[in-house]
Write a structure and sequence with these properties.
about 625 residues, alpha/beta, Rossmann fold, 3 domains, nine-stranded mixed β-sheet, seven-stranded mixed β-sheet, 21 helices, about 15% strand, elongated
């Protein structure tokens, strides 16, 4: 602390002591006057000085001299009031002990009340006056959406911040709070009926500020729709940890698209997952990707004996290593840079790590890029899966979980067809394990798009919005299934627990995550523009670019021959298997590997079409076949 700061602190403390002493002395005089108007002056005359000395003595343990009037809080006022009561009690006991008469029987109560009022009122008035004079003229009005601790903390932080908006009312999360008041503000309605609540207002607000982290999904979507009809922007308040009492800034944040599509979280069987994972050696391939990274984060929470993070990208696997180290510093980790296409390397890694559980998320998944690099897609997605499965089986693994995709159903792309091949190999492997009851079990989990994953449409739209548009959509009818990465990975773990258990599931059955209803990509684009406070087709253009190679207008979760069946586990469906004999699959994969290693794309695509008859090769192969 500098000499200047020390001097200021000493001067402030001295001023507090002097003012509290003067107020205590005045309280003694006023209490005598109120207790006995016929004899208003204290007897003896030096008693007011005694009041000043008493508050000085009491003020030391209560810290009154160190209070900053500008930032007086309710807790501080309660401390001051307690100090006033103790001071009154001390003076009364002094008078009784020395034989001095009390001016009236009510004097102790009057003295305590007067001391509390005189000690607290000036500080409170000063605080309110400073707020009024320092606060800039608010150019906007806002309604705060939320109730309870979140709203209380936001309003307290907002009172200290120089915000360009003034909160004029509250909207609760449920109707039971309507009509109440918080911080002098009326609760005008409930978030689940926002349209009606806003329609009752004589003057519409400029902002709706969502202060409830739990407000997501359909209720939030309805709130946004009601606000959009009245041209009201909706923003989200910072998290509770960023609303610290000392904060001088309350930075509002845009609503993110994940909040709108986030569905009610499925309750996971944590005890069952702990039995599956805790104390086991676990490996995640593709750990640097969106799914692999979230798998690593969630697996770390179940205390595996060792967590091996494998990826071909050094930077990607370093990033997730840092995150896991922060989340679970106590667990043992192994970082492996390896390519699932490298048979010798994967075999060596498996023999060294001896994983008991493998979550295989490594894949090439960008449809147009795989279409331009077909053999690489086959080497990674199909042959890489075979390499990982065979090496894990040879190393004594108990379970391998394949992360598949809805693009494997009636595929129109090499990416989708290569993932269907991966499914077929793992299905055949699982049937072998069930019959022999000695080798590794394989569980396949199929689902649609993950919000915000690397290379997906949401990060693309965010980048395009940051550049001012346009947002590019391939086709106005394009639609996809979406799920948050956290929900998807939680259900993957749940499917893993079910698949390795004793519960009866079909041989080679594929778990399919319940993705809900598909979403039109153009609707997603419009919603993201609105969330940015802009107007679609007015402030930001939406441009249609045409279907890219391998793309379909819509994806499917089940093939026509895969009869979907519910399971007893929320969020999980089961696709009846389309099985291929392990010997036949292995022979076909050997031929495919030879063609891929020789760089013979035409032969590889012929094999792919034969193995996955519902896949139709691209125009190049079609033309060559027509020429024959």
């Amino acid at each position: 602390m500098s000499r200047y700061d020390s001097t200021r602190l000493a001067a402030s403390t001295a001023l507090n002591i002097a003012l509290d002493g003067a107020l205590a002395a005045a309280a003694v005089v006023l209490s005598f006057c109120l207790s006995n108007p016929a004899q208003p002056w204290p007897i003896p005359a030096g008693l007011p000085l005694g009041g000043a000395i008493a508050i000085w003595l009491i003020g030391v343990p209560f810290g009154l001299a160190r209070l900053h009037w500008r930032f007086i809080s309710l807790k501080d006022l309660a401390v001051i009031a307690a100090a006033g009561v103790v001071t009154a009690l001390m003076l009364v006991l002094l008078m009784v002990g020395t034989g001095l008469p009390l001016p009236s029987p009510a004097f102790p109560v009057i003295l305590a009340l007067v001391l509390v009022v005189l000690l607290t009122a000036p500080k409170l008035i000063y605080r309110l006056q400073r707020q009024r004079t320092e606060a800039p003229e608010a150019s906007q009005t806002a309604i705060l959406v939320g109730s309870g601790d979140e709203a209380e903390l936001f309003l307290a932080a907002h009172a200290k911040a120089a915000a360009p908006y003034r909160v004029t009312g509250l909207m609760a999360l449920s109707g039971k709070h309507i009509g109440r008041r918080i911080h002098g503000l009326d609760i005008i309605g409930a978030a689940d009926n926002a349209g009606a609540a806003l329609a009752k207002l004589s003057q519409k607000p400029d902002l709706l500020i969502v202060a409830a982290p739990s407000l997501t999904g359909q209720i939030l979507a309805d709130l946004l729709q009601a606000a959009e009809q009245l041209d009201i922007r909706v923003l989200r308040a910072p998290s509770l940890t960023r609303l610290a009492p000392a904060s001088q800034q309350v930075e509002l944040q845009p609503i993110v698209i994940e909040d709108l599509l986030n569905r009610q979280q499925v309750q996971l069987d944590r005890a069952g997952l702990e039995r599956l994972i805790a104390g086991k050696r676990v490996m995640v391939t593709g750990a640097g990707g969106s799914i692999g990274g979230e798998l690593a984060r969630q697996l770390a929470g179940y205390a595996p004996a060792e967590l091996t993070l494998l990826d071909s990208s050094e930077f990607a696997v370093w990033q997730i290593d840092v995150e896991v180290a922060e989340l679970a510093p106590a667990i043992s980790k192994r970082i492996v840079v390896a390519d699932v296409r490298d048979v010798n390397r994967i075999q060596a890694v498996m023999q060294e790590c001896r994983p008991e559980l493998i979550f295989h998320a490594a894949a090439l998944k960008h449809v147009p890029i795989v279409e331009a690099n077909r053999l690489e897609g086959l080497r990674t997605n199909a042959l890489g899966t075979q390499t990982v499965a065979d090496a894990a089986n040879a190393a004594g693994a108990r379970l391998m979980v394949l992360i598949s995709t809805d693009k494997a159903v009636n595929p129109s792309s090499v990416m989708g067809a290569s993932k269907r091949l991966a499914e077929m190999y793992c299905q055949a492997q699982d049937v072998e394990a069930r019959h022999r009851r000695s080798t590794m079990r394989c569980v396949t989990v199929r689902f649609g798009n993950v919000l915000g994953s690397t290379g997906s449409v949401v990060p693309l739209f965010r980048r395009q919005l940051a550049l001012g548009g346009p947002l590019t959509v391939t086709h106005p009818d394009m639609q996809r299934y979406f799920m948050t990465v956290r929900e998807a990975v939680g259900l993957i773990l749940e499917a893993s627990k079910v698949g390795i258990g004793e519960e009866a599931i079909p041989d080679g059955g594929i778990f399919v995550l319940d993705m809900g209803e598909p979403v039109k990509i153009v609707d997603l684009a419009r919603q993201m523009i609105r969330l940015a406070g802009l107007h679609p087709d007015k402030d930001v253009e939406i441009r249609f670019t045409g279907l890219r190679p391998g793309e379909k207008l819509f994806e499917e979760l089940f093939h026509g021959n895969e009869r979907p069946a519910p399971t007893t586990h929320a969020g999980l469906l089961m696709a009846a298997p389309r099985l291929v004999d392990m010997q036949a699959v292995s022979a076909a994969f050997s031929a495919l590997r030879q063609a891929a290693m020789a760089g013979d794309e035409a032969s590889a695509m012929e094999l792919l079409h034969r193995l996955v008859p519902e896949f139709y090769p691209s125009s190049t192969l079609a033309v060559s076949r027509a020429a024959e």
